Amino acid sequence: MIVLDKNKLENSVLIEEADSLKNAGFIGKEQLDFIKKELPTLNSHKNILVRIGFFLLGSFLYSSICSAVSLLGISGLDHYWEIFPFLFGIIGIVGSEFLAKKDYYNHGLDDAFILGTILSFGCAVSFITKLENVLPVSIVVAIISFILFLRYIHLLSALVFYLALTLSLGYSIFEYLEAGQAILPFFMMFFGAATYFSCRKLINSLRNSYYYNGILLIKSISLILFYLSGNYLIVRELSASLARGYYEISPEIPFAFFFWVFTFIVPVIYVVYSLKSKDRIMLWISFLAIAFSFYSFRFYHSVLPIEVALTLGGIMMFAVAFYFIRKLKTKESGLTFKPDRISNSNAFLHAEALIIASSFGMKPEAKPSESPMEFGGGDFSGGGSEGTF
């Protein structure tokens, strides 16, 4: 299924882990340079600005090819212009295959063709259905993006796949079930939770490490989906927008107390569990969820003026941060304020392979030169002669 060279793909993962080990001080620059020299890798860019530049260049190239095809075929297909988005999608597939064969991976050029392929097929289905139904478009986008993620290990395709899948399920529940609007928040909560535990199980049993980042991304998005599905502000305003009439002020929703409790309890659970499991991404998400929870409350209940609320909130956050810094700065293990030597939790995944690879860079121990004077004879502890000339 993977079109990329698996050996070079695995080497790229090893180089990333070697960078983490070097930044942590476990290996030196000479060992890192030797590993990079000895392990051929795919053509990629880590600098986000360079990658964006190549993405813009690839988008221009992709659009130029599609424009040329349109000019060549517009005279013969004047009444069947709906076929052009399918042709553009095929061009994107051909370009993605060509770049993958040339070892382009997370380069920028390949991003333009892969994302262009997804967009082209999505537009093609939307033109056929005349935008009367979102479900076929979201299903096609989910299928295409999932295949492209598996084939090209493209991280953004994994994100598009999960968002399109969520939209497909949500739209199906809302449109085709009689009580769809009432059960939609609870279904999305269940879907987010099921996705999180499924991804965690997949990561624990993962054999191919190059799928790790994609699964981790979906796992993180599922945490956000679970929280937003039960957030009072999201549920109330979304219910009002999906209602048949327009409400200047959204009406109260059923089970309001449950959703208020959910809005404030889930971020606390995220904080506690992230500290227990040492999950940094969940900890970041929990901080954002806490901030959005207070925003949700203030959206409907303005207790204090905004400047007073911001001042008190800043003082409270400073006090909490100062307390925990003083409490944890002397700890050396567990939950501590000490900086991590390795920021990537997966840094030791290929440590054994890196050690083996770097060991070949060690020069053999120098053999001392032989003395020009040879001693011989002697049956005792000394190196005397045998009494002969």
From TrEMBL:
Keywords: Membrane, Transmembrane, Transmembrane helix. Residues 365-389 are annotated as: Disordered. Residues 375-389 have a biased composition (Gly residues). The keyword Transport does not apply. It comes from the Bacteria. Signal peptide: none annotated. This is DUF2157 domain-containing protein.
